[in-house]
Amino acid sequence: MQQNNRISMEMKKAMAGIIVIIAALSLLFYWEGYGREHTKYEQVICASAEIQKGQTITDELLTEKSLPKDSLINGVIKDKSELDGTVAAQYIPAGAQVCRKMTYTNDFYIDTDRGESIYKLPAEWIDSRSAAVRRGDTIEIYLADGKQKLGEYMVAYVRDAQEREVSSAAGQEYADMLNRTDATGVIDHIEIIATQEEYEALYQVIGSTGQRLLIVQKAE
Prior knowledge:
Layout: H1 2-40, E1 41-47, E2 62-68, E3 86-88, E4 103-105, E5 116-121, E6 126-128, E7 138-143, E8 149-159, E9 189-195, H2 196-209, E10 213-217
Parallel strand pairs: 6-10
Antiparallel strand pairs: 1-2, 3-4, 5-9, 7-8, 7-10, 8-9
């Protein structure tokens, strides 16, 4: 009887030892297969194909990669949804990590449901404006004395006297306001996105006050 109990205890110890070994091996496999990567690597978003400057970024152009944490660039994107509807501000090679500064938001559109269209602010209406105004900028419009704000609008086009688009010089297409040092022409007038009612209000206030307009760019 005692011998049977002794054998039973030895079998239990052996089984416990086997379980410990299996658990240790499982932990080792887990560490090598996942744990080490989880602590030293991170899932980030990379380009799955070449993305050209100005190209709308879609889900098919992006992929998730597990990369060493010490190799990640500043601001690298970790969630594809952050790039929904964005446009490439530069060429992004296949396999490259993608960060926010490489893209800009494509929220430049005409809301036809609101009755928006494109309206011209003639040169003779404008008293003062920056030479750095560009298509896609948001501007605030005031009477020339700056005392009355008339509205806030998106710039559809910036034109010269021959109706040609004035844009930033090559290499400055996505520069902030302070770095738009050169342009492709001299600004004559600006065209804005507005409703007919908003444009009529601008027209009427100019006629009733005799003042021209102060155009102020909103900080980015």
